[in-house]
Design goal:
- Helix 2 packs parallel to helix 3, helix 11 runs parallel beside helix 12 and helix 14 crosses helix 16.
- This protein has a seven-stranded parallel beta sheet with strand order 3-4-2-5-8-1-9, with helices on both faces.
- It contains 16 helices and 24 strands.
Length: 585
């Protein structure tokens, strides 16, 4: 029977009093053992903390903390937050992906208790509302979240921390376009707060801002407890007999290293930044690849699902069935993905406990947390195979071997930042090895062993990479020596989309001919079909504007959009203006 009527009678009779209190939905996990003190700081950490603490409460300042992997950046963040709380100020910690929030949340809750709020898209609407209200009411003085947390309703914000500041995930690529890191600096200026950007592989733009005096630089140049960076061995994947022959993707060198690691009872991480089983399934007779019906993209075979999948629009097609062009039933499975690596590793090491960490294995709620727990706490995983998810800020103290299956995947993208992204990814993955008491070893397999990105990643030498890369950018006038605006024209009709793009290009040239400043300060590239020429049934064209100064660049962009709308009927064509683009595809 319901207790409601009895409670009402007792309340009406005056035996019970009704007190209204908000009860928040709890997005946190299991209870956490408190951490009251924290470790003793190293000399480098203490110096960095002093600099940040001296700046708190004294107005706006931006710091870039360059700290090599496992140098103790997170402890610096916690000491800075502790100082802000003592000054009755609020603090915001941004991380690039939801996957990293649980690790950061556990550390901060252990140190600071329940004054922590979480903000990310993985929460329900009700949970997000509750966290928002806790911040607004100052019940939560610290918030940890992904990029959208930058809009949280802080009134007395004294500190904003941007962890892994180099990560492209901070850029919102749809609807309202913004960069979480850049907005963090803007919001810190608005509040007169300190912005602390941290990374083991800073973005070229941020590191340049230190050299130009816009940011202040802080350094953690040694791992905690004087642990050594892992030894890196480069394996040339080209056979000496000819450039068109290649070694197996699990080379003898890597296979032997895995066996030795298993024998010692230690853990291995294998990295390949491509999910699925085979990324280029093609007909054995005519060579036609299996293509997505919505995109000009080759589909990827996902063997566990017995289906081909498009990684851009999500279209799925059953594996059964032959070539779309000639009807031949035989499809050759070319290329690599994490599924294929997992199958091969299970075949070579049948007794090993193998797990895979990519988008396909972590979509279920709690799946990622379980993988990390099995890896770090229970030791139930011997070999972890993963995409870039495994490289981003996670601490794996028992991993002593990292194998990079193919270091070249992002090196030849049609994007001037391809080298920067390759270096960052390789250095971050390599930094997962040897973070505990035992030394680490990295085996880096590549077809470009002499490329400067590969060599500097091998040496974990960010400054050597930066010096080479900044010279290239200076010569070609790419950011940070210029600003970019990417205009993306999309539409379902191929001819109409192309014609609109060409017309918009002509208007831009006309505006430049009319205005000497536009002509001198802004360079027009295009219009051209985008590298990904059709996605989600939309044909795609690009116009790229490069300006040495932001004023003329933005002025020309506004004039171009205004005149374009006045003179060219858009019809079904959509135009998106992306200032400071991250994705050039």
């Amino acid at each position: 029977p319901s207790a409601g009527p009895l409670i009402k009678k007792m309340t009406d009779a005056g035996f019970l009093a009704v007190v209204h209190r908000d009860v928040y939905r709890d997005p946190f996990g299991e209870p956490i053992k408190p951490d009251t003190g924290g470790p003793v700081l190293t000399g480098d950490q203490a110096s960095v903390v002093r600099s940040v603490l001296d700046a708190l409460g004294k107005g706006f300042q931006t710091y870039l903390l360059y700290g090599i992997t496992a140098s103790g950046k997170t402890e610096v963040y916690m000491r800075a937050v502790e100082a802000a709380l003592k000054k009755k100020q609020q603090a915001l910690i941004l991380v690039p992906e939801i996957a990293l929030i649980s690790q950061m949340e556990r550390l901060f809750r252990a140190r600071f208790g329940e004054c922590i709020a979480l903000l990310h898209s993985g929460l329900s609407l009700g949970e997000r509302f509750d966290q928002w209200m806790r911040i607004l009411r100052k019940e939560a003085m610290v918030a940890i979240g992904a990029r959208s947390a930058i809009f949280a309703p802080f009134e007395n914000l004294g500190l904003i921390i941007v962890d892994e500041e180099h990560d492209d995930s901070y850029k919102q690529e749809s609807r309202l376009r913004y960069h979480g890191r850049d907005l963090a600096v803007v919001r810190a200026r608005f509040h007169g707060a300190v912005a602390l950007l941290g990374s083991a592989t800073p973005s070229v733009a941020s590191y340049y801002n230190v050299h130009s005096g816009k940011f202040r630089g802080l350094n953690l140049s040694r791992r905690i407890e004087n642990r050594h960076l892992p030894e890196v061995t480069i394996v040339d994947m080209k056979e000496p007999s000819g450039p068109h022959r290649a070694k197996p993707f699990i080379t003898t060198h890597l296979k032997e290293a895995i066996a030795e690691t298993l024998h010692r009872g230690e853990q291995t991480l294998l990295f390949l930044n491509r999910r699925g089983f085979a990324n280029y399934p093609a007909c054995v007779r005519c060579g036609t690849p299996v293509r997505c019906k919505n995109c000009e993209i080759t589909m990827t075979l996902h063997q566990e699902a017995n289906a081909y999948k498009c990684h851009y629009c999500g279209y799925t097609r059953a594996q059964a069935g032959g070539c779309q062009a000639c009807g031949n039933p035989k499809i050759k499975l070319l290329g690599l993905g994490t599924e294929r690596v997992e199958a091969k590793i299970r075949d070579i090491f049948p007794e090993a406990r193998v797990a895979r960490m990519d988008r396909d294995t972590t979509t279920r709620k709690g799946a990622l947390v379980k993988i990390l727990k099995d890896l770090k706490t229970t030791g139930a995983i011997d070999i972890l195979i993963g995409t870039q998810m495994v490289a981003k800020g996670h601490d794996y103290p028992n991993i002593t071997l990292v194998g990079i299956i193919c270091a070249d995947l992002s090196l030849n993208f049609p994007d001037f930042r391809a080298g920067e992204r390759t270096f960052q990814l390789l250095a971050q993955v390599a930094g997962r090895a040897g973070r505990g008491v035992r030394p680490g070893h990295v085996i880096l397999q590549t077809f470009n062993p002499d490329h400067f990105c590969i060599l500097t990643a091998k040496d974990q030498d960010y400054r050597a990479f930066y010096d080479h890369e900044i010279g290239f950018r200076r010569t070609l006038k790419y950011p940070p020596f210029s600003r970019l605006v990417l205009i993306l024209i999309t539409g379902r009709d191929k001819k109409q989309t192309a014609q609109y793009a060409r017309n918009l290009g002509e208007i831009c040239r006309s505006l430049q001919s009319e205005n000497q400043i536009y002509r001198k300060e802004v360079k027009l590239h295009g219009p051209v079909a985008a590298p990904l020429a059709r996605l989600q049934k939309q044909y795609r064209w690009q116009i790229l504007l490069k300006g040495l100064k932001p004023g003329p660049l933005h002025s020309l962009t506004r004039a171009l959009m205004d005149r374009g709308d006045q003179t060219i009927p858009r019809g079904a064509v959509k135009v998106v203006v992306d200032v400071d683009p991250v994705d050039m595809l």
